[in-house]
Design a protein that fits this description.
With 334 residues, the chain is α/β, with parallel strands linked by helices. 26% of the residues lie in helices and 28% in strands. It contains 9 helices and 16 strands. Helix 2 (128-141) crosses helix 3 and helix 2 crosses helix 8 (284-297).
Amino acid sequence: MGKGTNKQILLAETPKGKLSPSNFSSHEGQIPTAKDGEVLLKIKLISLDAANRAWMQGATYRSAVEAGTVMAGGAIAEVVESKASGFAVGDLVFADTGWQEYAALPAKQVQKMQKMDPLSHLLSVYGIAGLTAYHGLLDVGKPKVGDTVVVSAAAGSVGTIVGQIAKLKGCTVIGIAGGDEKCAMLKSDLGFDHAINYKKEPVGKALRAVTPKGIDVYFDNVGGDILEAVLFGMNNKGRIACCGAVSQYDGEAPAHGPRGIPGLIVVKRLTMQGFIVTDFIDQQEKALSDLQAWVKSGQIKVREDILDGLDNTPQALIGLLAGENIGKRMVRVS
């Protein structure tokens, strides 16, 4: 292809404190050309994730995003030109395309997706969010019928799904979220047993009131003070699935980590396990078939938050980090 313009959003400078729109800039590039073994992609939907912010700080499970380059991010895209076997024009894929309208990538960096309506489900319940919720809860948290499960960032893309899977597995579920509207939605729409608004009440005290039998499984999306509060309520042999630490991604590093961890882990024989979704790639087919069955039966309701326009991507990420979204946030590019 190679003709026409390709609008891109660059990380103009590495943020020092909180992320702001001035950390990004808009750029008109050329539509790239697919080389041998590559596919040219037209980006449809860009996934926004708290991890986007962590990537700016330095290398994580991927290399850091350097200032002056296209901001990194996963997306659902359509193949518009293929010079790679196994890919045809019109195929849908998931790839780390970055924040732009077009990207040319080696076929080995691209994952073919099935076509579905709505397309957005490929980024939410059948994408990284749904798979993270599924494997983190079931393979790391290992809930049993009758267990008490607590999930933080419960109104976010992963948390909404974790809570619903825990309910259908026969658990009592408590969500921690920021705001009365989110807490009400968790209970009335998604079937959580209790929801705690951490902006209004001390989490430790609120948890003690609603978990008389203690906490068996904690799905941790935030780290920091909330992790500390939950730890004190954990039962012996409790399991903690460590998915993320969004409280620590944006702005200054906290002055201290959760207190009491070494002693509590020993005394209560707790298991704390970090994971990323690619650890479970060999079990993906079963996970997807379970998730599809649960969505079809209405046991999982999908919450999505879709904004339009590539130019809105920086503000959409800043809003995500501030907890504006309910469910999976994404930006529709085309």
